[in-house]
Here is the input.
Amino acid sequence: MNPRILVPQPIHEEGLRLLREVGDVEVVETDRMLSRDELKAALRRTDYFLSIGDLPLDADILDANPELKGISAVAGHPEEWMDVDAATARGIPVTGLTRGPVLKTTADLTIALLLGLAWRLIEADRYTRCGRFRQEQSTLFMGHSLEGKTLGLVGLGGVGQAVARRARAFELELVYTKRERASPSLEEELGATWIPELDDLLRRSDFVSVHAEYGESTHKLIGRRELGLMKPTAFLINTARGRIVDEEALIDALRAGTIAGAGLDVYWNEPPVTYSPDPNPALFKLDNVILSPHLGGATEETLAVLARLGAENLVALIRGERPPSVVNPQAFEQRSATR
Here is the structure.
């Protein structure tokens, strides 16, 4: 009997092709996150699970199928949103991916949001569609040039560095803040200047782009006080994690004109903190914010790579191999002892 493989939402065909070579594949055709009950029911009818995105998998959900044989997480750091310890205790190996495939696409999206804010592209589209374009070079609708403006990066990890490399093409002045200063060679390569204090970066920047890791030390890192330090002409961009920014304070700042606008790809209510994405409806009513549905890795090319890598990990588990990306290798020993 072929192993049963469950995929909880549509993925790129490149991954499905690999999975179909080794088992019977069920793809749940849906445009939303499965509910807890739906996910439990789905797990009961499978042997292997390809987990997409930040789908929360806790002990209660894993208990739906004590015979589950393996999970391939198509995301980086599955321990952030999955109870890996619970999987280990049940003898379920879990594989993950590095964030490499999505670093550049997230940087591309960050620059797209920056350009969209500077040029008021969403507003410009509406302006033109409603028939108001009746004069060229009109002062009724103006954007902002980028040359000479300052882009402040909050964090300089993989995505932050990729953003910096792209931003240089627009002749932006680059500044960054992080706990430990980057090496002189990296600063020279990126053309970036270190600012030790976040407050100083906020006061100086025309665009502030968030790229910090999320944790206790960065929870609400950008709050009401910090937003008040920004220029009234400045824009905030967040493609990192929603809860790094105090969303209620941001909404108030956008309404009051404390800052000029924001570009958001992540939100306060998103997995793994909440079970499914639930952006604040107040954001939908604001004209000075660009919203995207967590698109950081959502290009056809990147999703093909992610699907292939995730499928390769699951195929290896099905064949009895130990992929190097297993995050809980002790699960194999636990499996041998209990099954």
